[in-house]
Design a protein that fits this description.
Elements: E1 3-4, E2 6-10, H1 16-21, H2 24-29, E3 46-49, H3 58-73, E4 82-85, E5 92-95, E6 101-107, H4 114-128, E7 131-138, E8 142-144, E9 153-155, E10 158-164, E11 166-167, E12 172-173, H5 178-192, E13 195-196, H6 200-203, H7 210-250, H8 257-267, H9 269-324, H10 328-341, H11 345-352, E14 357-365, E15 370-383, E16 391-395, E17 398-399, H12 400-414
Parallel strand pairs: 1-13
Antiparallel strand pairs: 2-6, 3-7, 4-5, 6-10, 7-10, 8-9, 11-12, 14-15, 15-16, 16-17
Helix pairs in contact: 4-5, 7-8, 7-9, 10-11
């Protein structure tokens, strides 16, 4: 029984629909050397779109999710990773940003139906609250075992499911544990009537991207060709040995062409020719495969050099900016700190530009692991030689840590707990 799996990652909303729908613009710009796609098979593809997103693009839907999160939680959707300090252990932990739209690539069969995939999406929605937005079945992709030889085409039947990973009742992201994602693979196998793939925790293998997968398959084919060639050469050597032996045995009785004709009729000189022809065919196939692998490796090396050159240029620009504006590294850290408190990107930008920000709502205290509310407050980032990196954040002209402690004290007194003021002088550190 064929095996299936679902590899889920954050959706690239800028490219997903173009690839899945096979738009003319996408087909015009794809690298046909790296992506094996047959236009003559495109009519076999299938697509389904949820009424929730019908008529709008993924970019527009992403914007809608951001507005929904803001309305439900009062805070902008946090899409970037951020760090915070655990007040109990003192360790810095990374809080992953939200990825509201994810995309899964599913291994399926030629006869997998849209109804089976919709059933899988429905079961996942009932189990975890994640919602399928789009489903595409692709039957036009694959690779040639021997580049240029159309008879060696191997199809790569798969489907894409684009998921809404948000709880629209709470405005928060759906949280799935590793056990949950493992259970998804089991549900998928049952829905498609296929065997469940082996978990990577058992195999130790990571999922290969498409180009890497094709190269790996071609290397496997090259290795098979090499082994077959060696076997054919060994058989040819054995046949030639038989010919020499028979020639010696009959040399006393017959000479010249009589010996060769006798041996040919007994052993079959055509067998030698067939073996030699197989060796020649395998050698050509092996050379084509190695040529394709070399070309793929050159493409990857070229793209890697381009990325390295781009990164080098960006690093140079960053170094110049830091040289001209030495406060930039500290202001970047302050901006990230402001975002971790609950300020929006726009508010954080105003603060690091030394502009006052008037706000209402909640701010999160890392020290108390708690949100504190305010109706009308003003935040300012100001230069302060005693502050971290030469700056200090003030809320209503009170240093931020002192403001949080004051709010914590008011909260405890409100519930009937009186506490003594902490000793002054304890500051904060910017990491």
């Amino acid at each position: 029984m064929a095996k299936t799996s679902d590899n889920i990652r954050p959706c690239n909303i800028g490219q997903s629909e173009a690839h899945n729908r096979r738009t003319p613009q996408y087909l015009a710009r794809i690298n046909k050397e790296n992506i094996y796609l047959r236009t003559d098979l495109m009519d076999d593809n299938e697509a389904w779109v949820s009424p929730r997103i019908e008529g709008i693009s993924l970019r527009e839907y992403y914007k809608y999710i951001g507005e929904m999160v803001k309305a439900k939680t009062g805070r902008a959707m946090q899409t970037k990773d951020r760090t915070r300090v655990n007040p109990k252990t003192g360790k810095t932990v990374t809080v992953r940003g939200s990825t509201p739209i994810k995309e899964g690539v599913i291994v399926c069969k030629a006869d997998t139906t849209m109804e089976q995939l919709q059933r899988y999406g429905k079961l996942c929605h009932e189990r975890w609250g994640i919602t399928p937005l789009q489903i595409f079945i692709h039957r036009d992709e694959g690779h040639y075992q021997t580049p240029g030889d159309k008879t060696t085409w191997k199809p790569n039947y798969h489907a894409h499911i684009v998921w809404d990973w948000m709880d629209h009742d709470t405005g928060k992201s759906c949280k799935l544990s590793p056990q949950d994602t493992s259970e998804m693979q089991t549900i998928l196998a049952e829905a498609l009537g296929m065997e469940r793939g082996t978990s990577k925790e058992l195999t130790g293998r990571e999922h290969l991207e498409r180009t890497d997968y094709i190269i790996a398959k071609q290397k496997q084919e090259a290795e098979k060709t090499r082994v077959a060639k060696e076997q054919a050469e060994a058989e040819l050597k054995a046949v030639k040995g038989e010919l020499r032996t028979e020639k010696l045995k009959n040399s006393a009785a017959e000479v010249g062409m009589t010996i060769l004709d006798g041996i040919g009729s007994m052993i079959g000189t055509s067998k030698v020719k067939r073996q030699q022809q197989q060796i020649d065919d395998l050698a050509q196939k092996n050379e084509r495969l190695h040529s394709e692998i070399r070309r793929q490796n050159k493409t990857i090396d070229r793209e890697r050099r381009e990325h390295e050159q781009t990164a080098k240029g960006l690093q140079g620009e960053i170094d110049r900016i830091y040289g001209w504006f030495p406060d930039t590294p500290q202001l970047v850290k302050w901006g990230e700190y402001c975002r971790s408190l609950g300020f929006s990107d726009g508010q954080a930008r105003d603060l690091v530009n030394m502009r006052p920000v008037r706000f209402s709502g909640e701010l999160y205290s890392h020290e108390h692991s708690q949100h504190f509310e305010t109706e009308h407050s003003e935040a300012r980032l100001m230069r302060d030689e005693k502050g971290p990196g030469g700056f200090q954040l003030f809320i209503d002209l009170i240093p931020i840590l002192q403001w949080f402690r004051q709010k914590a004290k008011e909260f405890l007194e409100h519930i009937g707990i009186k506490i003594k003021d902490r000793e002054q002088g304890q500051g904060m550190r910017m990491r």
